[in-house]
Specification:
The chain is α/β, with parallel strands linked by helices and about 250 residues long. It has eight helices and seven strands. The protein binds nicotinamide-adenine-dinucleotide. Nicotinamide-adenine-dinucleotide binds near residues 39, 42 and 58.
Length: about 250
C-alpha cells in the first residue's frame, strides 16, 4: 500500500532539492514519474531514474496547460516549485512580493486548475503541495513575503481538499523546516557575505534546528511518497510538518 506502481505522477521543480528527491523516490516506489523543471539540462539528469523529463516553467500558464493536456491525467501531483525572498515588511519591494506569489502560489493554482478536472474524471488522485514550517504555522525572521506565500499554499491545500473530497481528490501540504538543498546552501552563502562570516551564517541556520542538524531532501521525500500512496488514503487537508522539532 506504500507502493506507487502504475500511478502517473507529475513533479514540478524536480531538478534540485526536495522536488528532485521526491521524483526519485516516487519512481523508486514504482510511480511513473514525469519530472519537470525550469532548468531542462538539470532535470534531464534524472532521465534514467524517472519515466520522463520535460522543461516546465510553472509560472507560464499556457505551458502548464499544454503539458497537462499532453501528459495527463495524473494520479499524483507534487507542487515543489518555490523561491525564498529574504526580508522584513519594509525590506520587501513590490516586485519581490509579486515574484514570490507568482512562483510559490499562482503556479500551484495554474497546475491544479489545469490538472484536477481530468484527475477527477479519471477516478481521483493525491496532490502534495510543498509549503513550509515558515508561514501560518510559525514566523521565521525576515521571511515576510515567503511566509505569506506559504500560508497561502496551506489555504489552497485545505480549500482543494474540502471541495474535492467527495470526488476522490486528496490534497495535503508538507511543511519542511530547514532542509539542505541547493537554494538553502545559496542562502547560507548570501547571509555569510552579509555578515562577513560563512561559518557563522551556517551556524545560524543549523542552530535554529532543535536536532542540531539540517534536514535532508530525502527525509521530506519520504513523507511526500507516503502522501501520494494509498497508505495515506484517509488523510487529506492537513499540514504535515517535517522540521527536526522546530514546532515541537
Ligand atoms: P531548490 O530551491 O534547491 O530547487 C528549486 C528548483 O526549482 C530548481 O531546480 C529550479 O530550477 C526550480 N524552479 C525555480 N523556479 C521554477 C519555475 N518557475 N518553474 C519550474 N521550476 C522552477 O529547492 P528546495 O530548497 O528543495 O525547495 C523546494 C520547495 O521546498 C520550495 O517550494 C521551497 O519553498 C520549499 N521549502 C524548502 C525548504 C528548505 O529549507 N530547502 C524549507 C521549507 C520549504
Amino acid at each position: 500500500m506504500f507502493r506507487l506502481d502504475g500511478k502517473r505522477i507529475l513533479v514540478t521543480a524536480a531538478a534540485a532539492g526536495i522536488g528532485k528527491a521526491a521524483a526519485e523516490l516516487a519512481a523508486e516506489f514504482g510511480g511513473k514519474v514525469l519530472a519537470t523543471d525550469l532548468n531542462l539540462d538539470a532535470v534531464q539528469e534524472l532521465r534514467d531514474a524517472v519515466s520522463k523529463t520535460e522543461r516546465l516553467d510553472v509560472t507560464d500558464t499556457e505551458a502548464v496547460q499544454e503539458l497537462v493536456e499532453k501528459e495527463g491525467p495524473f494520479d499524483g501531483i507534487v507542487n515543489a516549485a518555490g523561491v525564498v525572498v529574504h526580508g522584513t515588511l519594509d525590506e520587501t519591494d513590490p516586485s519581490d512580493w509579486k515574484r514570490s506569489f507568482l512562483v510559490n502560489v499562482d503556479s500551484i493554482y495554474f497546475v491544479l486548475r489545469s490538472a484536477v478536472p481530468a484527475m477527477v474524471e479519471n477516478g481521483g488522485g493525491s496532490v502534495v503541495n510543498i509549503a513550509s514550517a515558515a508561514g501560518s504555522l510559525k514566523a521565521f525572521p525576515s521571511r515576510f513575503a515567503y511566509g505569506a506565500t506559504k500560508a497561502a499554499v496551506i489555504g489552497m491545500t485545505k480549500s482543494v481538499a474540502s471541495d474535492y473530497v467527495a470526488k476522490g481528490i486528496r490534497c495535503n501540504a508538507v511543511c519542511p523546516g530547514t532542509v539542505d538543498t541547493p537554494s538553502l546552501r545559496q542562502r547560507i552563502v548570501d547571509f555569510g557575505e552579509n555578515i562577513g562570516d560563512y561559518e557563522e551564517a551556517r551556524k545560524f541556520f543549523v542552530e535554529r534546528q532543535p536536532m542540531g542538524r539540517l534536514g535532508t531532501a530525502e527525509e521530506i521525500a519520504a513523507l511526500v511518497v507516503y502522501l501520494l500512496s494509498d497508505a495515506s488514503a484517509y488523510t487529506t487537508g492537513q499540514t504535515h510538518v517535517v522540521d527536526g522539532g522546530i514546532l515541537a
